[in-house]
Amino acid sequence: MQALRESIIGILLESKKITKDQLDEALAAQKAKNLPLKKVLVDSGYITEDLLLSLISKQLYIPTLHLTKFKFDKEVVDLIPESMAKHYKVIPLSRIGNTLTVAMSDPLNIFALDDLRSHTNCNIDTVLAPESEISRAIDSQYALEEQSIQQMLKENPSASAGEKPQVELFRQDEIDLSGSIKESEKPPIVKLVDLMLAEALNKRASDIHIEPEEDILRVRYRIDGALHDFFRVPKINQNAVLARLKIISNLDITESRTPQDGRFKVRTEGREVDFRVSALPTTFGQKFVLRLLDKSNLSIGLDKLGFSARPEQIFKEAIAKPFGMILVTGPTGSGKSTTLYSVLNQLNTPEKNIITIEDPVEYQVEGITQLQVKPEIGLDFANGLRSILRQSPDVIMIGEIRDPETADIAVKASLTGQLVLSTLHTNDAVSSITRLIDMNLEPFLVASSIVMLCAQRLARKVCPKCREAEPVPEEYLKKIGFNGKATFYRAAGCKYCNNSGFYGRIAILEALLIDDPIREMIMKKESIDKIRQYAIEKCGMQTLRDDAFEKVRSGLTTLEEAIRITTED
User: How far is 494 from 32, CA to CA, in rounded Å?
Assistant: First the structure.
């Protein structure tokens, strides 16, 4: 330090940028306060830091660099430990061959240069940088992980560092931790990923979206069907976070150009939750979507799924049949899989052989044989279904009927003694008939095989703690076909529901039990409108909108939500 102090004194006297009296005052203050002479001069206002650096640079022939917009390489920064960087006020900038360039506020500190050379086994080149900028760079590059996590912990007091972890990886000892992903094994990164999972469980999220953007890594949760921003992770932590996710999901950590699928399991509060992981390469890095699959939702049975009385009764009659086909239709994310798995759990007894074929396997259920399709080796739905039929099943669940071949095998299986459960993508229950006939199935096969058709949607339940009654004009109720009296609520929003006004979701069902007149209409190729009209008038079928309005009358959801999720009948 003495060498730099003397250089500064000589430079200032030669440049005449400050007076002799000012320099003497600064030297006296420096001796009294035991502070660096540069800091005393700048703090006293005798000279600016930029001007002083410029004079030192000119005198010592060392270039000056401002670090505010400099893009650091994490691998280069890690060549020097944080403790050494803070002690000597130095930050690594770049490495070319065996030469390491560092930014220093005191390039004449030979002890620092010797230590850096000994630790890195590199020749050291120096550039001058303001000490304040070096300190900020050290904080941002070395302590950014800790700071970001501490900030998140502050925003999420339920996940404080001193408490027992809210989630723990199941069978973590079996996970292969690669030595090449050292960054992902650092405690801050592990805590950050654990925090993401714990908060998703606390907030009742169904999906976690981890999305790389140009300057940040954005984390969003899908809660009650809608996405909400929760975390913004610094871009510098992106690769480590994604590597950690790959490791726990058993994905290939070296592959980032092609999509990958994986899964892992965590244990929290005495229950196990599966996470299904999908990685997709995007412009700014791999986007991850984690689907939360809580098996505790499956063991509750049909009685507690929130079905209205009429659809629930139809469902119970259908699954009591020894054979036939039950189809649940609806768009992606409408709860079809959860409904079918709840049915399977109810049917899951030692006397029954239950086999599923899925893409991918959503829930892993004990006592049920589950097969995942693998098209790359020729194991598609059709081939897998043929093999399943040779296993003497009592109940078969097909993840989705996608093609004519699968539809044909499924229908014939339902006619030869198996109860077949599956899903289709249609807007309502009766349209499933047309979809199957469009797949080149004979109408008599469709009519003979189908036991029940069901369309499903998920409506958001209005928050019971902040809902507010509101009047609705009679003219509007007549226009939308709402009959009877009801207390209508609006979603106000409170802390309990994250200010969304909704808490949880409930199934809206349109269920139709196929009877003989409907079978005759199918074989005669009657129009879907005629079949639907008969189902409503003669069978008492509740349409999706009817069931949604029933939920409104019960005070479970809002009128706006009921209209949003149903189409005009």
Answer: 58
